[in-house]
Known about the structure:
Blueprint (H helix, E strand, L loop, with lengths): L1 E7 L4 E7 L3 E10 L6 E3 L3 H10 L5 E5 L2 E5 L2 E7 L6 E7 L14 E8 L4 E9 L2 E10 L5 E7 L2 E11 L7 H9 L3 E4 L5 H17 L7 E8 L31 E5 L8 E5 L4 E2 L2 E10 L2 E2 L2
Parallel strand pairs: 1-3, 15-19
Antiparallel strand pairs: 1-2, 3-7, 3-8, 4-6, 5-6, 5-8, 7-11, 9-10, 10-11, 11-20, 12-13, 13-19, 14-19, 15-16, 16-17, 18-19
Amino acid sequence: MTSLVICLFLVLIFSSSSSSQDSKLVVFAGIPSSLDGWKTSEISWNTCLSQCWYDEDCRVVFQSTSSCYVFKRGNVTIQASTDSVNRVAVKIPNPPNDCLSEPSDLFTQPFTETTNGSQIIRSEFSYSNGQYRVVYTVSICPSNTTLYTRVVGTKTYQVCVGFRLFPGGSGTYSDAQKLCNSSGGYGLTGPLDGTEYDIFKNQSIALRKQNGLNENAFIWIDGIRYAYGEFDFEDESHNGVPANLMHPGDPNDPPPSALYMYGASNRYLIADYETKASWFVSWPIIGALCRVNDVLQD
């Protein structure tokens, strides 16, 4: 059982019983930069602290005269104060075991982006030049997209990816870029690795069947070259195209050319084709693989 620990600066430090969280309430004199969107109630400070502790969504509470203001999600800057009438309590997850000498010593968590499997959680608890910064947001992927965790080098990305179809039935690479940038889109993307590729392949097969489309139809993915050599990619969250996923002999089209996924005729492998094309002989290029921006939850 994890104990409730309140680090109360300028007054005293104490602990009491139980909570389901590994967190600390850090209490200090401070004034939030804005109270827009905060919920307020006329309750005592101790009740305010207790309610915040047991509310999993509560991140910050602020006392001004007899009012308790509650901050749950978003980002806020708190200016340190010498006036103990204005009190702030910040609930920090996974802090050091001990209450340290200054509240700023506990604000050492840089910006992070993690997932619980269905939601994207972004958080930051930092301090600089008399200002405390608290960020806590929860997002989900929009409908018709799937959440993927991608690691590229030292950076981890939580991304929403899904297929989009051209309204007119076929389109060029430029059309694909516009398609993936519209309606909350981030841009074109491609498979991070073979595991993702297998998922996208199966999804593309289902997509064609569900929409009554030719099983050999192509789908644009991220990757364009304007001269012979390397492709340029607009989405930094994938590794380009692993060589073992390329169709034998590709890439082989004269620049400018862009990458696409074959249909059933060539085992759904990846190849390149001229960017201005919207058909390949009798097979249409029906859509694109898109990275889509996640949606904040209230």
